[in-house]
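I hope you will forgive my troubling you with a question about protein structure. Could you please explain, in whatever detail you think fit, how the structure tokens follow from the sequence? Thank you for your consideration; the sequence and its tokens are set out here.
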Amino acid sequence: MSSSIPPLTTIYFTDLSFSSSGGDDPSSVPLIGIDSQTFNVNQTFRGMKLIPPGLHIIHFAQTSSSVKYGICLFTSRQLLLSRYNSQIEDFELRSVDDQQQFEMMTESLGHDYNFMVGYNSIMTDDRCVSWSVLTDHITASILDKVIVLPRGATKRLGWKVCTVTSSTEENKILLSELKRTTPDTDYSTLIDDSESLFNFPAIETKITYRPNATDSEKTTDCLDKSWYFENIVLSTSGFKHLQEFFGQFQFCYLMVWLFGNYAAARQYNNMLKVYSDSKQFISDKPTDLRKFLMLLEQQFTLISEEYFNFDTDMIDVRNVIGAIKSFQSIISELGDKKTYMKRSLNEDLMKVKNVLIDRFEDINEDSFEVPQDFEDNENYLKNLDGSLQYYIDEDDEDAPVVVTGIEWDEC
């Protein structure tokens, strides 16, 4: 049948029964999008065509202020049928794999093909390059791990997500707290398992030292989280290797950027913090830091201020500035044999800083500076060898504390 279907991938909307009661109010017009682009649609819209192979996210909302739903899928050459289910305000997607079924719809598809939006008409070359940078580490196996199927689902064409998708970790915390406060209540039906869930690996940002560590080792492991990152995050937390860690980091960003998902934002912040604080690990793999900085430049350029500011519960700019200062310190301490790499990394880091400077009035080059005379500044810490480690925000509740001779329960 593949020789008969339209080229590349086509998503054919056979029923677009949106209700729109707002008249000419733009905020009441249904929104549909693919990847980084979103557009208003009306009853003449019939789908999207000429979608190239790779990862794509189809997203839609009843209005600009309502919950946004989406489907992540990897396309090859397919004909997909999409139907809007008004009862659950969600789209159903299925593949046309039967030749007889395809022949029955050939006439209507031929007519409606002219009323579909071409992928290349909204995704310019620059946007396609940007999308590649934002998604190049995301694989189907990562999505299988991260997105839990709804109850009763046995097969999926894609992975469903939405603005309010919660995480298994959040649900565990909620249930634990409820059982602690009212232990005699039955909460077995509280968690809705009819919807997808995010199953993010737990990432600790405080207790990051090795078992049976001495006070000195605890200080070292909290200032430089390399041991925790390499032995816990990349070994026992579900990440097979650093590229898979990057892939989940990219996925979390997409969920924040496209859907405003809070659970993904929390995981994103934790991943950024633990990676940027892993000094020795990054120093040993500077090429991977280059990839990461180029990714951050794209991410910070595109994300809306609604999800990226100084007062948000999503991606906090202060956390980002702390990570950049940490990267800056790591790059400055690379050995003389890595002079060329240091130059390239500094150029990449400058691009990230320039994005932030351009976007925020309160940020300038001085925002990333570490004072030369830091010994009397309580916001700065020394390594055990006396060298500067990185900036500690005085308002950062996760800031490590250097101690000796007392019991530690967190750092």
Q: What stands out?
A: Residues 339-359 form the longest helix (21 residues). The chain has two domains: 9-123, 203-391. The CA atoms of residues 328 and 349 lie 8 Å apart. Confidence is low (pLDDT under 50) at residues 374-394, 401-411.
